[in-house]
Design a protein that fits this description.
- The protein is 20% helix and 35% strand.
- It has two domains: 30 residues; 138 residues, no CATH class.
- The protein contains two helices and ten strands, in the order ααββββββββββ.
- By secondary structure, the protein is α+β, with helices and mostly antiparallel strands.
- It has a six-stranded mixed β-sheet with strand order 1-2-3-4-9-8. Strands 5, 6, 7 and 10 form a four-stranded antiparallel β-sheet that branches.
């Protein structure tokens, strides 16, 4: 009877042992990797979720509100996402508007009414309705940058009018134009 060889001296046994050790090591590495994997980062809130949070935080009934403060003054409060330049970090903005007499001497000038907007936003977009014999027709929105004075008709910049104050924008119009909306853009 041949002499029995030690376990580690048999080639087949050595291969089986090495394979078994590699299998155990691979299994341990797989288990460790799966347990230590970081959980996926929570998804960023959607635009609508951010706007809803802003509405709730600032006590608005909806994403955009207009409130009459009396005496020719209004407050336009809104939440938007992404937040416009100059709005709060959560997208909230408030624009106050007051109406004064414009520099025009007659209705024909189209500058007898001045809407003075005050806001921390860098740019505004104001929407007007033209009263055409009782039918209100939307006009092209007027886009303003802080410190500008523009006309509703055509949106041209007005020169020679008194400059707006700090954080102000001015839109000049005739009395047949009604301010409908204003928002930070």
């Amino acid at each position: 009877m041949p002499e029995e060889r030690k376990f580690l001296e048999r080639p087949l046994a050595v291969v089986a042992l090495i394979g078994g050790v590699l299998g155990v090591v691979a299994t341990v590495i797989g288990i460790f990797a799966s347990l230590s994997a970081t959980a996926p980062a929570p998804a960023a809130p959607t635009d609508s979720v951010r706007v809803a949070e802003c509405v709730r935080t600032h006590g608005l009934a909806q994403a955009s509100e207009r409130r009459d403060a009396g005496g020719g003054r209004w407050y336009f409060r809104s939440c938007a996402w992404p937040a416009p330049t100059g709005a709060a970090a959560d997208g909230f903005s408030e624009i106050t508007v007051r109406t004064e007499a414009g520099p025009g001497e007659s209705e024909a000038t189209g500058m007898t009414v001045a809407h003075i907007f005050t806001s921390t936003c860098r740019d505004l977009e104001a929407g007007y309705l033209f009263d055409n014999q009782g039918t209100l027709v939307p006009e092209q929105p007027v886009r303003l940058t802080k410190g500008e004075t523009r006309r509703v008709e055509g949106g041209s910049i007005v020169t020679g009018a008194p400059p707006p104050g700090r954080d102000q924008f001015v839109v000049l119009s005739g009395s047949r134009y009604n301010l409908d909306t204003v928002r930070c853009v």
